[in-house]
Amino acid sequence: MILSDLTFQQLQEYVIAIGLPKFRASQIFDGIYSGKTLEEVSNLSKEIKEKISDVYPQYKIIRQLISKDGTQKLIVQFGDGKIVECVLMSYKYGNTLCVSTQVGCRMGCKFCASTLNGLERNLSAGEILGQALLVNKILGGSLKDRKITNIVLMGSGEPLDNFDNVCKFIQLVSDEKGLNISQRNISLSTCGLVDKIKLLQEKSYNITLTISLHATLDEKRREVMPIANRWSIQEIIDACREYFDKTGRRIYFEYTLIKGVNDSNEDAQRLAKLLKGLTCHVNVIPLNSVKERNLLGVARAQAYQFVEKLESLKVSATVRRTMGEDIEGACGQLRNKILKENKE
Ligand code: SAH
After folding, report:
1. Domain shared by 40 and 67, yes or no
2. 45 shares its domain with 74
3. What pTM was estimated for this model as a whole?
4. Residue 133's domain is classified under what CATH number?
5. 25 CB less than 6 Å from ligand 1?
6. Ligand 1 site, residue 247, Cβ cutoff 6 A
7. Helix ranges restricted to H, 18-81
8. What confidence score (pLDDT) does residue 169 get?
9. 22 and 89 share a domain?
10. What stretches of the chain show up as alpha helix (H) in DSSP?
11. Is 287 in the pocket of ligand 1 (CB under 6 A)?
12. What is the pLDDT of residue 135?
């Protein structure tokens, strides 16, 4: 446990349990939510700091890369030395932060750099939150003055494979006493763990569900996404329909175009048929080739053609803007580079 895993109320209970007066909880909470290290928290005595030093968050930003388009890639290191990456995208309407939910990933998608070394461990709710708190600090924000407006759970890891911690994170980050980010401004992206989508639906959060679909035929999906051996495309779509019926939230699909695998006209037609009648939007993304994998992307012009085809079939779709390409923007790429450098 680290203290950022706790809600304000839980922190108060903790503070009392270790024999401190209740008001200390506010000071500690303010320190954590301002992204301060324990040393930087000025209103706690040395004795108190010693008392909580094992549980006060140790995470820190160890690398910050800024792309020509302003996108930032940040490497966060946790108390045990493990690292993850997060990506900050600044738009006119606010700042979107893409956070990681696991160190590595065990889903094994063939095109994804996060999964190359498998899963190392889950992140706790407070460690996922920590990424937002540290970046909020970099942006000049604090507990009272929140600079991050949107969160996407789209960094390394499969959020629904770390279900309980991710749910706790959603509660913490949207808590009025905390960063108070509206659940409507939170998107969770999954490769399609159908049983967990159903559990998520029962939580009745107001978050947006995004599905990494990437194929329209199960046998093709199995070629690039091992999870397709467990759940069929139809089962995923059915779960999405239920999710929409229950929450009224439009579903998003990620469709990464991989040359010769899922980029044909027939694919666009099958996709339109699968999504018929579902309130949804498709983000078409040209694959960002990963050095370690021999799958190729398509030209942007082809991605636009694919979108046009979908639109002609009455499916809402856009080509996703690619940002931060010059800073190893795709999932897990920068982390791998740093891990390699450290080995050399
Ligand atoms: N595990 C979750 C979230 C992390 S991946 C999921 O699968 O959705 C975030 C998104 O990046 C997914 O849509 C994933 O398929 C996509 N992605 C991963 N590697 C990519 C690459 N090399 N090029 C383009 N998109 C990629």
Report:
1. no
2. no
3. 0.95
4. 3.20.20.70
5. no
6. no
7. 24-33, 46-52
8. 98
9. no
10. 8-17, 24-33, 46-52, 125-138, 163-174, 194-202, 218-224, 233-247, 265-275, 300-312, 333-343
11. yes
12. 97
**Ligand 1 centroid vs 2 CA: distance in angstroms?**
29
The whole-number pLDDT of residue 338 equals 67
Going from the Cα of 230 to the center of ligand 1, the distance in angstroms, rounded, reads: 18
CA–centroid distance for 13 within its chain = 30
Under a CB-based contact definition with an 8 Å cutoff, are residues 152 and 97 in contact?
yes
| Number of separate domains in the chain | 2
Specify whether 75 is located in the same domain as 13: no
- Is residue 65 located within the same domain as residue 50? no
Residue 245 has a CB neighbour count (10 Å cut-off) of 10
Ligand 1 touching residue 290 (CB < 6 A): yes
Residue nearest atom 3 of ligand 1, based on CA coordinates: 154
Mean pLDDT by runs of 10 across the 344 residues of the chain is: 98 98 97 96 96 97 90 96 95 93 96 92 98 97 92 97 98 97 97 98 96 97 97 98 96 95 96 97 88 82 96 95 64 67 64
Residue 141 Cα to ligand 1 middle (Å): 29
Q: Measure 285 CA to ligand 1 centroid, in angstroms.
A: 10
Supply the range of the domain harboring residue 44: 1-54
